[in-house]
Every structure is written in C-alpha cells, then in structure tokens.
Design a protein that fits this description.
The chain folds into three domains: about 100 residues, 2-Layer Sandwich (Phosphorylase Kinase, domain 1), CATH 3.30.200; about 210 residues, Transferase(Phosphotransferase), domain 1 (Orthogonal Bundle); about 60 residues, no CATH class. Helix content is about 35%, strand content about 10%. It has 13 helices and ten strands. The strands form three sheets. It has a six-stranded mixed sheet, with helices on both faces. A two-stranded antiparallel ribbon has the order 7-10. β8 and β9 form a beta hairpin. It is globular. Keywords: ATP-binding, Kinase, Nucleotide-binding, Serine/threonine-protein kinase, Transferase. Belongs to the protein kinase superfamily. This is Protein kinase domain-containing protein. One of its GO terms (molecular function) is protein kinase activity.
C-alpha cells in the first residue's frame, strides 16, 4: 500500500476541483484524478462535516479493511492503491484514500439515469444496461465479491451493500466499493471483533436488514439481505425506495408478486426479456432474492450458495442449444484440441476470470470443457445466439 502525500493528490485532482467531482456521500466526496504517470485514480476525501468534527474513523476504517484483504486482491473488490496518513501507522489519521478509477460509475447511476447529469456517454450506458445478460453477470460478480468478504479471515461484513456502492469498469465488470461501514467478525456468527465505533447498527434505508437492530445481531446475513434488494433492483429497474411509487419499498412491492408467480410484472419493461427466461430462470432468480429477504436470518442462503445458483442460471443455455449449435461447438472444440489452442477473451467475463476452454492433452477423450467459477464458455456464447 502506497502512502500518498496530500500535494500529490491535489495535483492529480486540480486541487479537488468541482469539475473532477464524481461522487458525494455523508462520509466524503470522490474525485477523479490523474497521477504523473498517467494512471487514472479515484480519490475519496473526507467530508467537510467530518473534517470539522475531526472524525477520521470512516476513512481510517475503510483503509484498514481494504489493506487487510488478500494481497492478490479480488477482481470483484475495488483495487485499493493507498491513502494519505498523518500517523505512525499508514491507516491512522487518514484524510483521503485512493482507489482505481471506474469509468462507468455506479450501478445506481446506470439503473436510474435520472440521477445522472447530461453526458455524451449516457446513450451507450443505457444500451448496455438494457441487456439482460449484462445485469445477470453483474449480479454474479457482486455475489462473488460479497462471498470473498464473508470467506476472508477474519470475516468481513460490508454493512452497506447497495447499488450506489457497486462500481462498473470500462468492460462493465462490477466491483464492491465504499468500506467505511465495514467491520470484521471473529467468525461467521455474531461475535464482533472491531466494532467499538459501530455500536449502533448502520446501513442505508431500503437496503438495511430490519432484524439488524443491535450489535449482537450483526452477521454475514445482514449483507445477504442487502444483496437481495440489489438483485430486485437489477431485475426490475426500480429504486430500493421510490416515493413516487406505491408501495415505496421495492421489497413490499416485489415479494407479493413473487409469491403469486408474477415474474413478468417485476421484470424491467425497458428490457426485451427472452420469453423462456421469464418463465424459468428469472423466476428462479426472484426466488433467490426472496430467500435473501427472509425475515429470519437463518433462512437466508449463504453467499456461496447464491453464487452457485446464479452461475448455474448463466450456463443453462448450454443444455438448450439446438443440435446445429452443438455441432458447431464440437467442431470448434475439435480444432482447439488439435492445435492446442487456448481461447481467452477480453470481452464479457464474470468475476474477472476468463479461462481456457479446452484441455491441452491430445489423448484426452473427455469432450467436457474445463469450467471455472465465473467463466463464460464457448458453448454458452454460441447458445446465447439462439436467445436473442
């Protein structure tokens, strides 16, 4: 982790010019910056209110959490580049943190474009988010990121999973950000480690688990609940809380429809959903969301199970491919085997992983494809042609 000097960040952001402002929240403002070597960065600076209170805890906590995660970093967690520091330890007295710059902004801005200023890039962003597969991939990527946090040692609970804290890079890969409220657990139950400054449950209205009312009820299932709300957002295109709608809560609106099997009434009308999706996989996806939003924490599935279900929904077109597509696939696979050719992609990918799609061994008689969690396969891509 690099310790940045304040003057470096001032130079990178034109002294935190309003023209560089790309995000603002209760804990701080985020600016786009460019370092001397041309690297684009995002700089989160402490809010004026917290500066006046001399309260550095949110930024210090975010720096501490991000710097403690696996050094390999996870492709679905925003890359932490460093921070300013005024104390003996790099994460003490932090006034700004630096992460990678995500050019496509937040998921909230893209799903709800009325919150965006006029931008020449907006039409393209709209078109991309009108693809059902893009939204399903984002759902898997976010689930992978949350699973990584929950499986870390010690376990990390984000506590503020929401569309505004999900960033999108130039390839539409989603990454979790904003760890100001995150905390660690000794284990996956309710034994709290470093929450001395977090005695009051925190989160965002519309996403926060209603059963999380005391510190003793903090667990990974708090994030699962919030993830369920994000899943409903992705499917419906509706805000978590929309005072222009009745009911205002996306949960109160969607759950009764799910119970009555009315998936078509929930799906975002701006998307041309393939017919076979609404009657099958979308209903299964909505059932996952409903389980995440269960009143009883114990009834909510762990993130590992959620990732498995969602990945299964993405690769399902393989079994639905017509014979002609299977024939084309077998031809490609055969050519790849003879030439020992490995196919990598720079386009769509899940959780940042594109892996080889055929074995190298010429003697291998197994026609199966090496499948890695989060990978898109040649056969799936071909099958997808039949769904559009």
């Amino acid at each position: 982790m690099k310790v940045f000097e304040l003057h470096e960040l001032e130079a990178a952001t034109e002294s935190f010019s309003p023209s560089r402002l790309i995000g603002k929240g209760s804990h701080g403002s985020v600016y786009r910056g460019v370092l001397e070597d041309g690297t684009q960065i995002a700089v989160k600076k402490q809010s004026l209110a917290l500066q006046k209170l001399q309260d550095d805890t949110k930024l210090e906590n975010e720096a501490s959490i991000l710097s403690s995660l696996s050094p390999e970093s996870h492709p679905c967690i925003v890359d932490f580049l460093g921070c300013t520091s005024g104390g003996p330890h790099p994460t003490e007295k932090v006034t700004a943190i630096v992460t990678e710059y995500m050019p496509n902004g937040t998921l909230h801005e893209i799903l709800h474009p009325s919150t965006l200023p006029t931008s020449p890039a907006l039409p393209h962003q709209h078109q991309q988010m009108l693809l059902w597969r893009t939204r399903l991939e984002i759902a898997v990527q976010v689930a992978c990121g949350v699973r990584f946090l929950h499986e870390s040692d010690p376990t990390v609970v984000h506590r503020d999973i929401k569309s505004a804290n999900i960033l999108l890079d130039d390839n539409w890969n989603a990454k979790l950000a904003d760890f100001g409220l995150a905390t660690r657990l000794h284990n996956s139950t309710s034994s709290i480690d470093d929450v001395a400054n977090y005695k009051i449950p925190a989160g965002t209205i519309g996403y926060i688990d209603p059963s999380y009312t005391t510190p003793s009820e903090l667990s990974t299932k708090v994030d699962v609940f919030s993830y369920g709300v994000v899943l409903l957002e992705l499917i419906s295109g509706r805000r978590a809380i929309d005072m222009d709608e009745s009911p205002a809560s996306i949960i109160d609106w969607a759950l009764p429809l799910i119970e009555r099997g009315r998936a078509a009434d929930i799906c975002d009308g701006k998307i041309d959903w393939p017919r076979n999706l609404v009657g099958g996989r979308i209903e299964e996806l909505l059932q996952v969301a409903a389980r995440c939003l269960s009143v009883e924490q114990n009834n909510r599935p762990p993130m590992d199970e959620i990732v498995g279900i969602l990945e299964g929904l993405i690769v399902e077109p393989i079994v639905r491919a017509p014979l002609s597509m299977n024939y084309v696939y077998d031809m490609i696979l055969s050519m790849m085997r003879r030439r020992k050719f490995r196919l990598f992609g720079s386009g769509k990918k899940l959780c940042g992983e594109i892996v080889k799609c055929a074995n190298d061994d010429d003697d291998d008689d197994d026609d199966s494809v090496n499948m890695c969690k989060g990978s898109l396969l040649v056969r799936e891509i071909l099958a997808d042609i039949t769904l559009k």
